[in-house]
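Deviation from plan, reported transparently: 5-O-phosphono-beta-D-ribofuranosylamine complex.
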Amino acid sequence: MIRPRKRVVALISGRGSNLAALIEAAKEPAFPAEIVGVISNLADAPGLEAARQQGLATRAVTKADHQGREALDAATDAAIAEMGGELVVMAGYMRLIGKDFADRWAGRMINIHPSILPLFKGLDTHQRAIDAGMRVHGCSVHFVTAEMDGGPVIAQAVVPVMPGDEADTLARRVLRAEHRLYPHALRLVAEGRARMEAGRTVFADIADGDRDLLVAPALEKLTEASDLESLARFTP
Ligand code: GRF
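Because the crystal trials were delayed, the predicted structure below was used instead.
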């Protein structure tokens, strides 16, 4: 039986590189989801223009037009419905949503966050990971709840923190992992193999070969030649 692809609406605020990775993944005919529309809370988000150029439906639903969190949430919800969204992916959507909106999409809205949750919720995750002396850092895809970056985790990717890393070098390494992780996690949710139940992620039909869907990409695949060279420089 061929299942129809899930219709996905993306919420963004910025450059939209994760959105681009999802759009690319969805070009594979067997991918179980398609991006049907993109909504930004900032009218000048570069990702919105990029999505438009790809022929996707786009909307800016902004604070200037809808005052107060609830009004902005309701307008965003209405825009998702107009686009026929069945699932919502947040991809660098830099605003907090209220409980009603989160509850309405519970189990059907996911987010990517640049840390190994529950560590480093919120902003400046890369600098905070460096300051904490972490040797590993990474990203997490999780179901969205009313608690910021607090919903149950679906999949995570881990990258090394290299000696000499600064926030931007570490951010670039994490971003490469994000672009691989997010399509995997969306696949799991769209196929109904990862579901949110009673505040936890419940998995179904996961086989040994599916490891990369849950922990992706594996650490060794991410340690690039440039990382190894920089490690060599710092080894006495
Ligand atoms: C990513 O690091 C994502 O994890 C965070 O915001 C950033 C968005 O980047 N939530 P992009 O707009 O997808 O390039």
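The longest strand covers residues 33-40. We consider this an acceptable substitute for the interim report.
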